[in-house]
Design goal:
This protein has 347 residues and is α/β, with parallel strands linked by helices. The protein contains 13 helices and 14 strands. The strands form 2 sheets. Strands 4-5-3-2-6-13-12-7-8-11-9-10 form a 12-stranded mixed beta sheet, with helices on both faces. Strands 1-14 form a two-stranded antiparallel sheet.
Length: 347
């Protein structure tokens, strides 16, 4: 593979606090404690040191915390968990969000985006948020993905964020994301499928180092509509999108029946599955790779990954939270940041 080498990125990753009452703080501490064993990339946690000290004590974990600036976090990582203050206190007890929770979570996200856009961090890794908690505080976005897009809007132009769920065995992208099934079908269009697939293909080339990505596009209806007998949308919406993408030189198959796209033999034929709605994409990857799947936001001017799970209020502060998905998210963010750019793309 002919690659133009990109300079190795030695900047740390910016890790957000997530919902303070959830397991984000738990798995961040656990991940840092395994940094040497797993040879993890350097990261710093954006949050409140006093809160993190209390959570570590509740978990019975002995962890050294260091107050640092983003530009000194990498040097501190080997000996202490670097904490960059957001200036926003977190006071929630495990499993019990409080009046400070929303602002503690949002201030961490905003600071992480500022850090990565100013060049202090190589990528953003986000811990899980609780949308219900944010909604009560006036948050008006469907989720993390859409909020990150707004934070990166330039001159009134908001980028189209694309949510990819990646694992070593499967990568999937839902064309419609945080919407009811009825609303998702109403939103689906040829143009949306085409723009989503273009972003995915570009990211697979420039960020994952795949020179000729292979995309598999699912049908919307059972059996991809069964030649119109189970719905016309696959003929009138999905198939035209596939034709447009192929005419642009992309390697695309579809529309394919979703019920036969995800077995072992089928997955060998594509690099990413483009699915029509949320559960069509997330059910197979969470079945195959629940602990290893990573949420990657494409279409932003920076790298963002996240664990593929929620806040797990019921086990926060108990020591039972598994950091595997966060560890995978940290590793993938560092890998993407260091991926050589194809010769046809700028380094």
């Amino acid at each position: 593979m002919n690659h133009e080498l990109r300079k190795v990125d030695t900047r740390p990753l910016a890790l957000t606090l997530g919902e303070p009452a959830g397991i984000g703080p738990d798995i961040a501490i656990k991940a840092w404690l395994r940094r040497e064993e797993l040879k993890l990339p350097a990261f710093y946690l954006l949050g409140d040191r006093n809160f993190l000290e209390r959570r570590a004590a509740a978990l019975g974990l002995h962890v050294r915390l260091a107050d640092v600036d983003a530009n000194t976090a990498g040097a501190a990582f080997a000996d202490a968990l670097p904490v960059v203050s957001t200036g926003q206190a977190a006071t929630a007890e495990p499993g019990q969000p409080d009046a400070q929770s929303a602002q503690a979570a949002l201030s961490s996200i905003r600071q992480a985006v500022r850090d990565v856009r100013s060049g202090l961090a190589s990528a953003v890794v986000t811990n899980p948020i609780a949308k219900s908690v944010l909604y009560r505080a006036g948050f008006r976005h469907p989720g993390h993905t859409e909020y990150l897009a707004e934070l990166t809007a330039d001159k009134g132009q908001t980028p189209q964020p694309v949510m990819m769920l990646w694992s070593p065995v499967l990568a999937v992208v839902p064309v419609t994301i945080h919407a009811s099934l009825r609303e998702a079908i109403g939103r689906l269009s040829t143009e949306l499928i085409v723009s989503t697939a273009r972003i995915v293909a570009d990211a697979l080339k420039t960020r994952f180092g795949i020179p000729q990505p292979r995309l598999a596009v699912s049908g919307l209806n059972p059996h991809a509509g069964e030649e119109g007998t189970l719905g016309r949308e696959d003929e009138t919406i999905v198939a035209p999108a596939v034709d447009i993408l192929r005419a642009e030189g992309l390697t695309v198959k579809g529309p394919l029946p979703a019920d036969t796209m995800f077995h072992d033999a089928a997955r060998k034929n594509y690099d990413c599955a483009i699915c029509m709605y949320h559960d069509q994409a997330l059910i197979p990857i969470k079945t195959l790779a629940f602990d290893d799947a990573v949420n990657v936001t494409l279409g932003l001017p920076f790298i963002r990954t996240s664990p593929d799970h929620g806040t797990a209020f019921d086990i926060a502060g108990t020591g039972r939270a598994n950091p595997a998905s966060l560890i995978a998210a940290l590793r993938l963010a560092a890998r993407i940041a260091a991926t050589p750019a194809p010769a046809s793309a700028p380094p």
